[in-house]
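G., the chain you wanted modeled:
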Amino acid sequence: MKKALLKKIPVVEAGIKDKQYMELCRQNYLMKVQKATVAHKRTLILNLYDAENIIKEQYQPFCRIFFSNRDFITYFIKENRWSIKTLDILETEKGKFISQIAIRTYKEKRSIQQFFHCTDDAVDSIQLIQIEQQKRKAEKSLKRKKRRIKDIESLFCSVKPVTGRFEKWLEYEVLKESQYIFYQYSGRKR
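Predicted structure as tokens:
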């Protein structure tokens, strides 16, 4: 995902209706949903607002989560930093339950479900987001692990396998008296 292009997407601000809704529902956060096309890819943008800020009529989100087909990234607006933190990690950082996120309209909930190809209306949108984040994070981790293993295997392909003759020499000549090698360790340089 190209961060420069993601930053250029206009931020959706909360409004007076959102303030009234947050006063009634008593949730910690509000989520507003946007859709955009970034670099020819469908992108879902989740704007997270702190309820206390909305009640104080500060309508800017504190973070934005961008989802594309196989990736997600979180942008913290005030700190101007990017992260791949999931919603449950945000919970420990902010100190409030992240499960208490309000999504005001059915249309926004439906947008989330359509983006993740979920047809079951009984599935909670916040849980769906968390599941998708965990799944994508696990996929990335697996790709990194495979790449590391591939690099290690390519290094070791030039190493010749141990022959039976070498094993016999090691066992009968080097480790003749004992299966242990004792040595004097000298920690200082001479």
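Residues 125-156 form the longest helix (32 residues).

Shout if anything looks off.
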